[in-house]
Amino acid sequence: MAVDLPLTPGWQLGAGPSNTDAAKRGPISIAGRVVSVTPVFCAYWRFAAERQGIFFRRLHCSSDSLTIDPVLQRFRFTNAYRASDRVSQYLIRHVIYRDDLPNDAVNVFFRILLFKIFNKIETWELLEEKLGPPTWEGYCFARYDGVLSQRMAGGERIYSAAYIMPSAGRAFGHKAKHQNHLRLIEFLIARDYPARLADCKTMAAAFALLVSVPSLGPFLAYQYVTDLNYSTLTNFREDEFVVAGPGALDGIDKCFIGARDIDPAHIIRYMHDYQEQHFADLGIEFPSLWGRRLQLVDCQNLFCEISKYARAAFPQYAGIAGRTRIKQKFLTRGTLPTPWYPPKWNLNVEIAATSVGAVSDIGQGRGCAEHSAV
């Protein structure tokens, strides 16, 4: 597949084809209901293609501009594919698939939860530097708490801003949020959650198990079941289940008129099922992930991202949140490493054969600019 992609002008800031595209499309049917689409719906597909194009241009270290879209130039957006984002890549490559660490169910579960609760690469690396290889057998609450408390006392953040993590104080009784979260991991392992998740036959069943955990709401439970499914602990199909987060709900509202009483999961599934049709209807050549279609979680995330994009490009569509600013700005992080995905996806051999990008640790290279993504 050719990945030396041209820039795609003409749709930024609500100008160009998006408005006329929406006028031409007319109503569509979702879950037996007829709804109208807005220009944001058409921009959803163009955004997905352009953001994926940026990803491939970075792999080639293009000396040209990564995009001519002024919103994408200025603000921070995640990749079209969730697993391609910087933190997801780190999770897959440096947390889950480690030849130097135990790969039994308990240890894989422990590492994933320890990383994802903080969702911050620097926190993981701090713990590994101070305490050695992160294993369940070597875990000690007092030692982990000491390292994290010291970092916070120095004025440093230990949590990513990507998710709002509930404190879990009512469930576990500590004043410090990170102490409750360490106890949460202990709670889950003591109650055999790794084996119980491995026994789940569907992603929906695994989600139901996680959403019952104290302090984990539907959004976090879905994110965690997706992260756990990158490992060998579970092997669910990513096209079988989805939960819309708050940002996705706002994006859905900006894309459709008359869809507020439709289950958001049905709307996300519609986007997943008919993606090729809509790309083709809009004349978009979407550069997929080495043949892998957008999965439900990717379509869900794209609704969140188009919600943010529309604040600048389509401010007339307020959505349900009514937010008007995009807080996170573009950052340059250097050369994009060659991506590496869960081996069960069967992508890594083909990626290696294309010899794209530069093999280096995430965030350590120098070269192309990146539209940074969590």
Could you please describe the fold and organization of this structure?
It contains 17 helices and 3 strands. The protein has helices at residues 17-25, 39-59, 70-74, 86-96, 105-118, 121-131, 141-153, 169-172, 177-190, 193-198, 203-211, 218-228, 246-255, 264-273, 275-281, 296-313, 348-354, and strands at 28-30, 33-37, 256-257. It folds into 2 domains: 12-84 and 246-354, no CATH class; 98-201, no CATH class. β1 and β2 form a beta hairpin. The chain is mostly helical and 374 residues long. The two termini are 26 Å apart. The chain has a 3-stranded antiparallel β-sheet with strand order 1-2-3.
For the biggest sheet, the summary is: 3 strands, antiparallel
The end-to-end distance, rounded to whole angstroms, is 26 Å
Q: What is the count of structural domains? A: 2
The whole-angstrom Rg is: 21 Å
Strand order, main sheet: write it out.
1-2-3
- Unreliable spans: 1-16, 356-374
Name the overall outline: globular
The helix/strand order is: HEEHHHHHHHHHHHHEHHHH
Q: In DSSP terms, counting alpha (H) and pi (I) runs of 4 or more, how many helices?
A: 17
| Structural class by secondary-structure content | mainly alpha
Average pLDDT metric: 88
What is the strand content? under 5%
Instruction: Please provide the count of β strands.
Output: 3
Fraction in helix: 40-55%
Brief account:
The chain is an all-alpha fold and 374 residues long. Helices cover 48% and strands 3% of the residues.
Short key terms for the protein model shown above:
374 residues; mainly alpha; 2 domains; 3-stranded antiparallel β-sheet; 3 strands; 3% strand; globular; disordered N terminus
